[in-house]
Amino acid sequence: xxxxxxxxxxxxxxxxxxxxxxxxxxxxxxxxxxxxxxxxxxxxxxxxxxxxxxxxxxxxxxxxxxxxxxxxxxxxxxxxxxxxxxxxxxxxxxxxxxxxxxxxxxxxxxxxxxxxxxxxxxxxxxxxxxxxxxxxxxxxxxxxxxxxxxxxxxxxxxxxxxxxxxxxxxxxxxxxxxxxxxxxxxxxxxxxxxxxxxxxxxxxxxxxxxxxxxxxxxxxxxxxxxxxxxxxxxxxxxxxxxxxxxxxxxxxxxxxxxxxxxxxxxxxxxxxxxxxxxxxxxxxxxxxxxxxxxxxxxxxxxxxxxxxxxxxxxxxxxxx
Length: 320
What we know:
The chain is mainly α and 320 residues long. The chain has 13 helices and no strands.
């Protein structure tokens, strides 16, 4: 794994030719799918190479394509057992290296960060919602089970006297299964937001209670902030959320949206942030007008009243 950062597909990700970049992305995805037991330390070594691969990419179109390949093309294909560790490795790397990014390369890294915020919302929020096709598939499966149960019931009647009771028990079991609600507790989304709250949106710059580095046990401390990264996430948080939501004709979101869970890291930053500008920026994010339009927040009408002075304004010297 130590030589992975020097493998051809990592270097080819920064190629100016689209075919080579796409091939390298496919090779990287195949590697990550085949190595489902990669540790956080190994993924950090990989991200070290990807970070500097992105560092050396030039030309805006190449940078945009590479940012999309490393996010929207790669992350959704990762195994479920790897995706959270891969995202954690990304945010650890960004937190470590953010101060070293010069102003000429900052914009492309902000684009990469935006892409990772967006793809995470797409995976854990949009793709976690039950679609109509899935609902139709579930109903078709339940219907098939009921039909099979009815057939088994007829066979059981002819085979034994106890067949009727067995068939009724089986049918009752299917009805119980049908009545169970398909709930989504947003477990994966909670796990991802805990990474964000632990790292870039953590209100503290240094936490003495954070566990020390222990590579043998795969314990890697998460960097907090810095403020520049906090500002960027607060700026794009609602923008990227809007991209994955589905709206009806009246502009209201369709389906369940765990808005309290999504805004919890921002709320924490607003109340516990160390610096006043960070708290003010978090308040601006929470006061976004779109949250009111979508019905997630109540609009606050600010009434500005002019103070009436008890003293009359001096009009100058009179003619008398």
